[in-house]
Specification:
183 residues, alpha+beta, Aminopeptidase, eight-stranded mixed β-sheet, 34% strand, globular
Length: 183
């Protein structure tokens, strides 16, 4: 099931990042179906070939978004995904992160390593200045991931994002290049 051709953008000790391809659909959707209990009510992940194509195509074509598959280096299998959405250039240089681990990889630190790689890529190759994460207040794992990567809580937005048919409250977390550099 893992993708057989590896072209990694960047690598860490256990994971590497690569771009989405349409050929990833079968593995991605199988992992999404296996992970439904982990994701709901926090996230709805494409779990059919058609949904995957609709989701992945803008990430592949870089339409204001950049998507990364977090892959285990030993197997090449997809552990999760991290996207930089709503990229705004000009004076803002900001993007909003969205992410999800798949159940077989949850709790193993793989997404933490992947998030560090994405942050480095965003502030380096992409030239962004600020990254934001919007997290539902009860999503302890996602909040721990954001906090552990150095993001700071900046606010609360009631009924901010529609997830699984309901408008849900979100906490707003942010990280700037200066915060990353210790400045």
């Amino acid at each position: 099931m893992p993708h057989t051709t590896h072209h990694y953008l960047t690598e860490g000790p256990r994971v590497a990042l690569r771009r989405f391809t349409l050929e990833d659909g079968p593995e991605f959707t199988a992992r999404a179906r296996e992970s439904k209990d982990l994701h709901l009510p926090w996230l709805v992940v494409a779990d059919s070939e058609e949904a995957y194509a609709r989701y992945a195509r803008p990430l592949i074509e870089e339409q204001g978004r950049v998507g990364f598959l977090v892959c285990e280096k030993d197997s090449g299998g997809i552990a999760g995904f991290i996207n930089i959405n709503n990229i705004v250039r000009g004076g803002f240089q900001c993007g909003a992160l969205g992410y999800g681990a798949f159940a077989h990889a949850a709790g193993r630190g793989l997404m933490r390593e992947g998030l560090e790689l994405v942050i480095g890529y965003a502030f380096g190759a992409l030239g962004l200045h600020r990254l934001e994460i919007n997290v539902q207040p009860g999503n302890a794992a996602s909040i721990a991931l954001a906090r552990g990567a150095g993001f700071r809580l900046e606010g609360f937005s009631p009924k901010m994002i529609q997830v699984d048919g309901e408008w849900r409250d979100h906490e707003r977390w942010a990280l700037t290049a200066e915060m990353r550099d210790g400045g």
